[in-house]
Amino acid sequence: MDEAFQEWMTWREATRDEPLEGMGAFFDARVEAYEAHMARWEAHYRWMARLLPDGVRTLLDLGCGTGLELDRIFERFPDLAVTGVDLSPDMLGRLARKHAGKRLTLLCADYFACDFGESRFDAAVSFETLHHWPAARKTKLFGKLRRALKPGGCYLQCDYVATSRAMEDAAMAECARRRARDGVAEDAFVHFDTPLTLAHEMQCLRDAGFAKVEPLGFLPGDGHTAMLGAVR
Ligand SMILES: C[S@@+](CC[C@H](N)C(=O)[O-])C[C@H]1O[C@@H](n2cnc3c(N)ncnc32)[C@H](O)[C@@H]1O
């Protein structure tokens, strides 16, 4: 068992009796301290902004939150038209205030349920939002995302990944145990991390029909946060 999995097992035992929190409520409750907490990913936000191809004019951001990735992306593309989707009204409120005057369309919605349209966006991004879902659900979402991109459009994802299939399976099992314990309805979203391995994540993108799926790597000192690129 690698170090990351061992750390996760220790965390699982330390938190095993904690109740699960609903996804939107979890972020609404933490909006004040949120940006300071996420500052650890500042280099990743900058990296994502650099990776977007020149000439991007329209962007879809899944789980945009308060828009930390957009802070950096707008520095490079000040006139970008962005559609941001997020469940948390408080996170979106902060983003709207921060970037008032930008070409922002904010949808307070579930990205699984929401219609992204067809061939509308030059690019799409997601940052630290997709590590809560099982593979089948993600594959369906990636299919919808792929269709929302223009042909040749690209998707960048930066997210927490499991370091082994054993860790992925253990996190899924623990999430299922806590959901059953707390009597959580099958369709309710809870804030509990169930990351896939990088290989599994890439398989989901391929299964969704992306033509090219590329691991773009990790930044030094952070072997848990992977950048991925995919092209329609
Ligand atoms: C860790 S935050 C990341 C926010 C932003 N991308 C960033 O890096 O600052 C995850 C965000 O995903 C949103 N989220 C989680 N599940 C979602 C869903 N099903 N539909 C839309 N947004 C969702 C949460 O509300 C939260 O704002």
Verbal overview:
Helix content is 43%, strand content 23%. With 232 residues, it is an alpha/beta fold. The protein has a single domain, classed as 3-Layer(aba) Sandwich (Rossmann fold). The chain has a 7-stranded mixed sheet with strand order 3-2-1-4-5-7-6. Helix 2 runs parallel beside helix 5, helix 3 (42-51) packs across helix 4 and helix 6 (135-148) crosses helix 8 (198-207). 34% of the residues are buried. S-adenosylmethionine (SAM) binds at residues 23-24, 27, 38, 63-66, 68-69, 85-88, 91, 110-112, 127-129, 189.
Write the layout of secondary structure elements.
Elements: H1 3-14, H2 23-38, H3 42-51, E1 58-62, H4 68-76, E2 81-86, H5 89-98, E3 103-108, E4 121-127, H6 135-148, E5 149-160, H7 165-182, H8 198-207, E6 212-219, E7 222-231
Parallel strand pairs: 1-2, 1-4, 2-3, 4-5
Antiparallel strand pairs: 5-7, 6-7
The structure holds S-adenosylmethionine (SAM).
The site of S-adenosylmethionine has 22 residues, from helix 2, helix 4 and strand 2.
Give a brief rundown of this model.
The chain is α/β, with parallel strands linked by helices and 232 residues long.
**CA-atom Rg in angstroms:** 17 Å
Largest sheet: 7 strands, mixed
* Secondary structure tally: strands: 7
Number of folding domains? 1
CATH-level-4 superfamily name: Vaccinia Virus protein VP39
In the CATH hierarchy, the architecture is 3-Layer(aba) Sandwich
Low-confidence stretches: none
Helix/strand class? alpha/beta
The order of strands across the largest sheet is 3-2-1-4-5-7-6
Overall geometry: globular
β-sheet strand percentage = 15-25%
